[in-house]
Design a protein that fits this description.
alpha/beta, about 375 residues, Isopropylmalate Dehydrogenase, about 35% helix, ten-stranded mixed beta sheet, magnesium
């Protein structure tokens, strides 16, 4: 059973894993591919700027990714996994995903989610307040099941009577659906609106999405009234994307199977200006790993213009999950100020600043 410690900040909305006293915070850093190598140092700098508000961070730089695979023939070294098992938390940068099958290659981030049982990908999408009274125009969380659906990557390619036939296995289990449902309700319970929307396509996929929908809906009945204050809605995934752009204010916590959650959270990022702003954590019951939602962005990698904010915010989310809300608040406040003022911003937000310039400005304000 996941820990249930109260969260009072709307932005945080991630349950504290532990508030145990630590003298050091062992953090694994996995930049991986592309701009991951540019934004993870920014998150590290933000954490170092917090001083005594968190235990002294002890960083370990770890290897993984497609580029590492091309050099060494493996995407996720055993040493990386073993070091993470001995760490308190981690930050992952980005991984390149080849569009064609590469023999022997499998995504290291997908593997880590399974190995470390990081069953929930929690992606808050919050715009910097720009409405009367300071209320954000967009304030929602996508809670994405992180271990199954089509991401089990069981695919076959055969030759049929009319040419090639490709098939993929989609796995939805009651156990995984119940766990992610409980995570969604727990997050909603500690938000002002206390509302969960279940995203599915059970009108077509009545067995797999039907099981997900039914299992998530049944979670409150298993909890002896704990979630009585939480209201429940449902939305078919296609109409959910449509309404997300037209009426983002109707959503509070959106819970979805793996693939839908991935797509919806990327789409939601457009509502706040850029993928470069949106953070996430991969969370389990005993470990948490921050990860910016954006990919490796090979078109801009090495140019020093990647937006570091998603990575920095992911570090803040990671801290909240560990119970260090004061440090996380300082990071979020500094980021909010920089975004709101807009004088230092990267090209994805219409600016001309470099990654390091944005990082320096945020660190100065922390």
């Amino acid at each position: 059973m996941p820990l249930r410690l109260p969260i009072h900040s709307v932005r945080s909305s991630v349950r504290c894993m532990s508030t145990a006293s630590r003298s050091k915070l062992k953090i694994g850093l996995i930049p991986a591919d592309g701009i991951g190598r540019e934004v993870i140092p920014a998150a590290q700098a933000a954490l170092e700027a917090l001083g005594s508000d968190i235990p002294k961070p002890e960083f370990t730089h770890l290897l993984a990714g497609f580029e590492y695979f091309q050099r060494k023939g493996e995407a996720l070294p055993d040493e990386t996994v073993e070091t993470l098992r001995e760490s308190d938390c981690a930050l992952f940068g980005a991984v390149s995903s080849p569009s064609k099958k590469v023999t022997g290659y499998s995504s290291p981030i997908v593997a880590l989610r399974k190995i470390l049982d990081l069953y929930a990908n929690v992606r808050p999408v919050v715009s910097v307040a720009d409405t009367p009274g300071g209320k954000p125009a967009v304030d929602l969380i996508v809670v994405r099941e992180n271990t199954e659906c089509l991401y089990v990557k069981q695919e076959t390619l055969e030759h049929g009577p009319h040419g090639k036939e490709a098939r993929a296995t989609r796995l939805i289990t009651e156990r995984a659906s119940r766990r992610i449902g409980r995570m969604a309700f727990e997050l909603a319970l500690n938000r002002p609106r206390k509302h969960v929307t279940i995203i599915h396509k059970s009108n077509v996929l009545s067995v797999t999405d039907g099981l997900f929908r039914e299992t998530v809906r049944a979670v409150p009945a298993l909890e002896d009234g704990r979630y009585d204050e939480v209201t429940i809605a449902e939305q078919l995934v296609d109409s959910a994307v449509y309404r997300l752009f037209r009426e983002p204010h109707i959503y509070d916590v959106m819970v979805a199977p793996n693939l839908y959650g991935d797509i919806i959270s990327d789409a939601a990022a457009a509502l706040v200006g850029s993928l470069g702003l949106v953070p996430s954590v991969n969370a389990g019951d005993t470990f948490v790993m921050g990860e910016p939602v954006h990919g490796s962005a090979p078109d801009i990698a090495g140019q020093g213009i990647a937006n570091p904010i998603a990575s920095i915010r992911s570090a803040a989310l990671m801290l909240r999950h560990l119970g260090y809300s004061k440090g996380a608040d300082r990071i979020d406040k500094a980021v909010d100020e920089v975004v709101r003022e807009g004088t230092v911003s990267t090209p994805d937000l219409g600016g001309k600043s470099k990654t390091q310039e944005v990082t320096d400005e945020i660190v100065k304000r922390i």
